[in-house]
Amino acid sequence: MYGIFAPRHLTSMALGLTLVLMGCGGGDAPSGDSSDRADGRSAPATLTDFQLAHGIGPITTEVELGELDAERAERGKELYQFNCEACHFLEDRFVGPPLGDVLERRTGTYVMNQILNPEEMARQHPEAQKLLTEYPLVMPFQNITEDEARAIVEYLRIAKEQ
Amino acid sequence: MIMSEKFRWALAVLVFTGVGMGLSGCAQEEGLIGAADAAERVYVAPGEYDEFYAFLSGGYSGQLSVWGLPSARLFRVIPVFSQDPETGYGYSEETKAMLKTSYGDIPWDDSHHPVLSRTDGTADGRWIFINGNNTPRIARIDLTKFETVEILELPNTGGNHASSFVTENTEYVFGASRFSIPAEQDLDVPIDSYKENFDGALTFVKVDPETGRMEMDFQIQVPPYHYDLARSGMGVSGDWVFFTSYNTEQAHTLMEIEASRNDKDFILAVNWRRASEAAANGAGQMVPGRYYHNEYDPGAGMATSEELSGVRLLQPSEVAGGMYFLPTPKSPHGVDIDPTGEFIVAGGKLATVIPVHSFSRMQQAIADGAIVETIYDIPVLDYDRTIIGEVENPGLGPLHTEFDGRGFAYTSVYISSEIVKWSLETFEVVDRIDAYYSIGHLMLTQGDTRDPQPKYLVGLTKTARDRFLPVGPKQNHPAQLYDVSGDRMVLLKDFPTIGEPHYAQALRADLIQSDVRRIYELADNQHPRVTRRSAEARVEREGKVVRVYMTSIRSHFTPDNIEGVELGDTVYFHVTNLEQDWDVTHGIAIKGAQNAEIILVPGQTKTLKWVPTRTGIYPFYCTAFCSALHQEMQGYVRVSPEGSGVPISWRTGTRGSTD
């Protein structure tokens, strides 16, 4: 097996080298960071302080939680039941970590970005990557809107007391 | 970046090869072009989209396949008339209803002619209809979901081949009997009483303009000929539909000889609007006719079935002034209408010319009373008064014609295995190109509508023989892609297909691609046994029936351990896929289940039935790779002897029935 595989491997390496050399001569637009992957996704990058504190995703300024909005929390509870509780309990570990006290560990903005952008969080964010060693599954995206994510955060503020 | 460089490199090689071909083969004269040029015209870069959707019928597979043009990449096979173990269509309890007919549950049919719904004679991309030929039915596929959402059976009909075709605003989808049978339901008579007892039937199904829902409106009883293909008029001829007929000999045995004796058969022109008004005004009579109407809600994963009885049957005398026979040589196969609605082109499969009737001449002939005889109250018009041209030297066996909207028609020619391009002005052949081999239908992109896109033409050929690497005595049916944008037709590539594509449709992708559903909203799921929350997952015993209300999400089932099932029980897994992200599917299969797995798309509920036959431990698992922990997405069911009294219990992880 190894004997068959090795020469092919060398051939494809040689081909790759040729292609890279050919690519150098072109007058194409700049391709950005040299660590860019061929499939267009970038490799782990240096995160900003905001991203370290509040996650990577569509929420780029800190969301002030303000006074509790009971109506929004109620809506958040329903969303939580349909979209989150298949893997998260409030107090016990399950497929994912318990969420009753999540806002003591994370900002609301971080939780929203985790909900809205779970795959990139798993690839890029050190906290999310740490969690993967404990809970091996990348959290699914559930087509939650920003407004809905905000409502889920509102529910998580009071979930433990309910 | 690297890919594009790689492609450039590949092209360089191909250009070199192409030069070689150009020097050695005079390829251009044969409608071939350099390989590099052909490759570039069909190349769709990774991650880029095709310009057209193409829908190819599945023929004896009973399904409908979806492709991209010009790449000829297969995207999906939509199950329509046949059970599909790949998705569980026709196997899951809910979808079994889609295959119900008045003849029982039928797991298969033969699908020939897809047609896109139309607005003003132009494909509007809302639905696509397709016929079931064997046990006559018409199916509707919703193009926001790419799922079969409705199947309607046509009563008292044999061989629904002249189907499915739609009127220019999809007022009706229609069909006809290719094989005449007695109009009277279930009539038991000697076969050799054909002339006395057999009838043809044209069926008109009304389509709801908002929902697309089909409803049987009326049938017309016609002479016992064989109605082969059909088309709706457009523009000036928009009130009319046209059917070809053969077997005017009224033979019933050794048809290939006996039904080919007459020099002329007919195109039957029917004013559908007049017939529709007559039916609405109470013409005809309600006759016995059992048929099924099956509907599917893909979001819920739930199909329902209704058996109906009775159909309104009109006689030609009740559509007076609205039905005429146009004599046409010789056993005509296709009848095709040009984008202006003026030309009615017949494919006289045994004729030496392509006869072209004129709609305005037909109108004049009617006004002048140019009638040569009357058959079953249907006037036969004088051939010389309706014909406007006969295309000479079309090759042997012209079948079907499509149009480019620039004054040219393209006709497939079966026996001489070629496509001929001819002028609608001079009726002369201007170009011809080989087909590989034995071409049936052809399809020019939107070339059967008022808005042809003269870019690509797909030739749907019957035999591949040496075109591909051999895979045994049976090769898949091939298709060829031609470029028809220039003066000469150019062969770009050929590719194997699914089943036997008889006919096809194409649609500019930008008309629908942004409207295609990515998920079904869980909140909208109306399945009666949906489990929207994993907290509501449970197992219930109802006598000898055990119902598992199950959820799936990456990557576990809830519940995944089930006990208390006994021999003699019938178990239903009602599984709801809680995923709400595009293209995240789960499946379920359990050892020993006597049917297929089922596949669940995001937000959908479906039911797998299982009757255990032996005691023991039965693993079940997710059949669709869903995450890095897909292998772990499994569970167990314990099956105990009958009467063992093991209580029903279930769990997933720390949560279950006893907590």
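DSSP finds seven helices and 46 strands in chain B.
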